[in-house]
Write a structure and sequence with these properties.
By secondary structure, the protein is mainly alpha-helical. The chain has one domain. Helices cover 82% and strands 0% of the residues. It contains two helices and no strands. Helix 1 runs antiparallel to helix 2. About 9% of the residues have low confidence.
Length: 176
């Protein structure tokens, strides 16, 4: 709403200067308002441009921070898997050592058993020497199979590694 004082001023100016003078003053006021409006529009455009550049800088900063966080998360996950692998390798080495020890014991016991079976010509009855016939079973020559010690060791190694791989796979699913 236009204030009463402005309306009164406009009426008195109209009476003094007439239609052409009022028209000239009106165009002058419109020109002044246009200049003021243009300056305001320029200021507003500059404000919008500054806000855009600031927003763009904030976006790039946030994007860089997100990339750093993603890299850190990826490195942490990779370190976690390296730790799991290292633990698995340690367990594998221990299990292989223990399994090879058991395989050597098995080979040693079965050499004695095979020797006893071959010497008696039939069933192996314990000769009182201890571990070879501790289970008190008798074996005929047809029940025993000669397996080279290298094959026993290879089978033991492969079995141990397969078991370790299964445990490692389970640890991956349990830790996720």
């Amino acid at each position: 709403m236009i204030p009463v004082g402005v309306i009164g001023f406009a009426r008195s100016a109209w009476a003094l200067i007439g239609f052409r003078g009022a028209l000239a003053i009106g165009f002058g006021l419109v020109a002044i308002l246009a200049l003021i409006s243009r300056d305001n529009a320029r200021d507003r455009a500059e404000d919008i441009q500054q806000a855009y550049f600031q927003q763009q800088a904030e976006y790039k900063t946030a994007q860089a921070e997100a990339a750093v966080k993603a890299k850190q998360a990826r490195e942490a996950q990779e370190q976690h898997y390296r730790d799991l692998q290292e633990q698995s390798d340690v367990r594998l080495a221990e299990a292989e050592s223990e399994a090879q020890s058991r395989a050597n014991d098995f080979i040693r016991r079965n050499r004695l058993r095979q020797a006893a079976c071959g010497a008696s010509g039939g069933t192996g009855t314990g000769s009182g020497s201890g571990g070879a016939q501790s289970d008190n079973r008798s074996y005929s020559d047809t029940e025993l199979v000669a397996v080279p010690t290298t094959d026993v060791k290879i089978c033991t190694t492969l079995h141990t590694r397969l078991t370790a791989a299964q445990e490692w796979a389970r640890s991956l699913t349990e830790n996720n």
